[in-house]
Amino acid sequence: MNIVEQWKPVVGYEGLYEVSNLGRVKSLDRVCCDKNGLAKRFKGKILAGTIKKNAHGQYLVVRLGAISGCGPKMRYIAHLVLETFDKPRPVGMECCHCDGNSLNNEFANLRWGTPKENTLDKYKHGTILWGSKNHQAQLKENQVSEIRAKYIKYPNGTSNSRRLANEYKVNIQVIGKIVRRERWRHVA
User: Fold this and answer.
1) CATH number, domain 7-128
2) Kind of pairing, strands 25-27 and 73-76?
């Protein structure tokens, strides 16, 4: 089944850019004046998306040119598609990819959802960044196992947490959270 590509103006950039229900963005033909006041003709084209990595994964973004005194902006293509073909982003909502592929920006694959719904989707699709897959992780799974095995609580109420924190170059609170299984629960 082939889906027919439909183009609509990007909200806030009418006459400059359009976005399609298949997740593509294009600039439109236009005439602009340069700093000397000379008219320059620009031919419209399909914009190449750039992959942007963040704490939640990788997403396609495009750079939209300056409008009304504001500089150029990087925008998530998924947001442009939803804002154009559905509705503006509701307060507190996130863009959810129904198939778990954050690079698939077809309108049929996108919806607005709560952060909780988005996280549940990530668990369902297996795309949640656990442990050392998370770009902010300071430790690896084997180091967490070592920390739990080396942890000693002494009879006087103290422990070797500070020594472990120095050895693994992490904060002492991190050691406590690992030992209490508040972090890295998935590691035995």
Assistant:
1) 3.90.75.20
2) unpaired
Task: Write out pLDDT tens, residues 111-168.
Answer: 999 999 998 998 888 887 777 777 778 899 999 999 999 999 999 989 999 999 999 9
19-55 burial by CB neighbour count: b if 16+ within 10 A, else e? bbbbbbbebbeeeeeeeeeeeeeeeeeebebeeeeee
| Per-residue pLDDT, 1 | 62
CB 144 within 8 A of CB 132: no
Q: Look up residue 88 and give its two tokens.
A: 């503006």
Domain coordinates in residue numbering, the chain: 7-128, 132-179
Q: What is the DSSP letter of 132?
A: G
Residues with Cβ < 8 Å from 75, sequence gap 6 or more?
61, 62, 63, 64
- Amino acid 69: pLDDT: 65
Look up tokens 């299984």; give the residue.
181
Report the SS3 class of residue 88: coil
Give the pLDDT of residue 106: 96
Cα separation, 106 vs 137, in Å, equals: 32
Q: What is the DSSP string of 93-125?
A: -EEEETTS-TT---GGGEEEE-HHHHHHHHHHH
With CA atoms as reference, report the closest residue to 83 among 64, 58, 57, 56.
64
Residue 24 has pLDDT above 90, yes or no: yes
